[in-house]
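Blinded run. Sample ID left blank on purpose so nobody reads anything into the name before looking at the predicted structure. Input follows.
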Amino acid sequence: MAARPRIKDVAEYAGVSPKTVSNVINNFEHVSEHTRTAVQEAIEALGYRVNLAGRQLRRGRTGMITLAVPELDVAYFAELAKHVTAEADRRGQTVLLHQTGGVRERELAALRGFDAHFSDGVILSPLSLLPRDLAGRDRRLPVVLLGERPAEGGTDHVGIDNVRAAREATAHLLARGRRRIAVVGGSTDGPQGTGRLRTDGYRAALAAAGVPFDAGLVVPVEAFLWQDGARAAAALLERDPQPDALLCLNDHLALGALRALHERGRRVPGELDVVGFDDIDASRFSVPSLTTVAPDKEAIARSAVSLLLHRVDAPETAPPRHDVVGHRLVVRESTGGGGRAGTGSGGRESGGGLRESGGGGRERAASG
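Blinded prediction complete.
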């Protein structure tokens, strides 16, 4: 039986030093793309695998991280969990998955590491935490937050620019001649959550276009689920005048709204346009296919895992980071885009349009 390849073997194969191989394995930033590719090819060719047991014993770590999200039956969080798990596996880590339901007590438990020692750190997507919860947390447990940027700045955070993303989606609808654009899941007051930030972006786009803001077109929802979108769309059709477009603050709301519009004989696009957020897989295969804001989920996962593992290895060496990852507006049939669902990555599909952007009740399933 052949001996397991070692870092030294990988280094010789790639023509680099063992230290460089270690830097690539640990995803250190200051490695050239050419060198990183050469080392990764050597790892694949030799079948090298990180010796997790030895590594963790030396470091006093478990080799496990926790991902805590509100709801796994919301497609955005399921897809995000897939990317986090893949990135963690690439970094030699195991992911423990926890569903909080968006309940503050469960989110607090995650923030404390569940009062156990089975995880080296936590990636948490909170909906109900208060600023004082973050300010008073135990700093010995590394934590990275996902979603909107927290008011308390002492915790690492990864998200997209929600204001900019909503502004761009609204500008797209305005460019198509829409003027009565309803925001399904929006909020004009309360804390700076995802719904509020995206509503702020919507209002900024209206102001830039000289379109008056109508607070009656901002429609809160109990939760960000299919049925909530359907109910909101049905209620909006009872109004006079009716909206000519719906900006839905996640794809579940948008797909529910599409169903309600279809049942009432409304043409999309035509009589109304519909835009969602998140670019979940179902958005490519709805009829019509859904125009949506696509956060870079892979980049979110990569950044969150990297930040967390950096804190695990060096918890007090750097100030907190707030990483803003990219997003893009994927234009599909629901706003007059192309018609075929595709198999490409990143939201590109045959016949569709892609607009790039740099960057990145209860909001029970809001995301991004």
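Unblinding after everyone has recorded impressions. DSSP finds 13 helices and 13 strands in the chain.
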